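Board notes (copied after class):
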Amino acid sequence: MKLGHFNKVFSNTTNSYKYYWWLSIVEICLEKDKKSISFYEITLKVISKLWYPVNYFKLSFGSQDKCSVYIRKIKKEYNLADNIKESDLYFVLLNNKDSELIKNNI
């Protein structure tokens, strides 16, 4: 596999959550040895990775960041703790993927 094409993804990182997308894709592939991944699966994994930095450190992920707003909505709707474990949050998100909040914001 030629990595040059992948490296171009990171040449313009005005939205720093790109790294979380990449990490999420890699983790899903390694965990499940899948040939295809759904957009929902990637998005929910990204949200679970961004959760702690957004809620604990109050980080923003760029000028166009909508992830932080969405994470705060999820936190409020499901009454979740700032320090929920990433794996537990991912499980909650997967179990609620058909909810209006998640369906309408992904």
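Comment from the instructor: The chain has a mean pLDDT of 83. Residues 36-106 form one domain.
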